[in-house]
Amino acid sequence: MTLLALETSCDETSAAVVRDGQVLSNVVSSQIKLHAEYGGVVPELAAREHLKNLLPVAQAALAEVKISPAQLDAVAATQGPGLGIALLIGFKAAQAVAFALEKPFIGINHHEAHLYSPWIGGCDAPVADFGNFQPNISLIVSGGHTMLVLVASELKHRVLGGTIDDAAGECFDKTGKLMGLPYPAGPIIDRLAEQGNPAAFDFPRPLLHDTNDDFSFSGLKTSVRYFIRDHPELLGDRQKVADLCASVQAAIVEVLVKKTIRAAKRAGVRCVTASGGVTCNSGLRKALATACGKNGFTLRLADKSLCTDNAAMIGILAERKLRMNQPLTALDEEIKPGWQLA
Questions:
Q1: Could you tell me if residue 329 is inside a domain?
Q2: In angstroms, rounded to a whole number, what is the distance separating the alpha carbons of residues 89 and 91?
Q3: Which of 80, 110, 271, 332 is the most buried (most CB within 10 A)?
Q4: Is residue 342 part of a domain?
């Protein structure tokens, strides 16, 4: 089976070609520089860029593996959740391709695709490793979402908890903005944190000791805001800024890791996975590895190339669903911007 997948849920235009569980190509066009001027994603600008970039990106993905549209066996696209005006571009384009080629079409939940991205190994020739699939607790952590999901078996999962206000990635970006760092601040905080002292400043760990699996980072963001208001001189000292970054990162990472490990113990699984843009954070990756090693858990982290929005994970999940005879998506079905993972 050779499948073309499209992803336009936010500010990255991506197309991938998947065949028999292997990602043959995965082309991503990022809009970070465009939105940096505004300190966040502007939906209308994102949609315009998707319109401009989608065809060249899709053509590049096909050309990279020397496949023509006529050789495709199926088409997939992100149906939700995401920015409605952005989702519309890729989803309707994919439906049009499927209609023109008279091929099966399937719409994919972006979050569900993240659940399986840690099972796609190797950055040169990524192959889905479902043969070694284990029940797991999956942490999905990004700019807009932070959630814990129990994945009991392939395509069977249950959300245990999620964000009740600010997501972890949002907290990284907003606290970075308070420090005067450019957007997106998350990767910059990660780099500066390596040079800082994570114990320099004591920030709250929201919901860390609550027994539920929900996350809240608005209180941490507010704490940083007041701290900077009361100590503005720190922003003029590079080392103090590094310490501040390290301290903020330590607070976020501790919450993410401890709640994930606690959920895994409660569920009785022996495997933990993590995906989403914030999973690129080196502090989080190291802390998860340490905690899983200490507790005897297997850890699978999504490859950094597959942590941010990409069509490869959409295609891999779509192909898996088609092989397992999951229902197709009608060619007149609409996008689902608020599609919640069940």
A1: no
A2: 6
A3: 110
A4: no
Domain that holds residue 80: 2-126+306-323
**Per-residue confidence in pLDDT tens, the chain, 342 aa:** 999 999 999 999 999 999 999 999 999 999 888 888 888 889 999 999 999 999 999 999 999 999 999 999 999 999 999 999 999 999 999 999 999 999 999 999 999 999 999 999 865 668 898 888 999 999 999 988 999 999 999 999 999 999 999 999 999 999 999 999 999 999 999 999 999 999 999 999 999 999 999 999 999 999 999 999 999 999 999 999 999 999 999 999 999 999 999 999 999 999 999 999 999 999 999 999 999 999 999 999 999 999 999 999 999 999 999 999 999 999 999 999 999 998
Residue 177 shares a structural domain with residue 84: no
CB atoms within 10 A of CB 310: 26
Same domain, residue pair 118 and 144? no
Q: Is residue 186 part of a domain?
A: yes
Regarding whether 81 and 50 lie in a shared domain, the answer is yes
CATH code, 94: 3.30.420.40
Phi-psi region of 21 (alpha: psi -120 to 50; beta: other; left: phi over 0): left
State whether 108 and 224 are in the same domain: no
Residue (of 6, 101, 17, 16) closest to 51 by Cα position: 6
Task: Note if the pTM is more than 0.90.
Answer: yes
Kindly report the CA angle at 60 between 9 and 145, in degrees rounded to 5? 20
Same domain, 44 and 158: no
Residues 98 and 138 in one domain: no
Segment (H or E) for 252: helix 238-267
- Extract the tokens encoding 34: 């465009």
Which residues are within 8 A (CB) of 239 and not within 5 positions of it... i.e. 6 or more apart?
195, 196
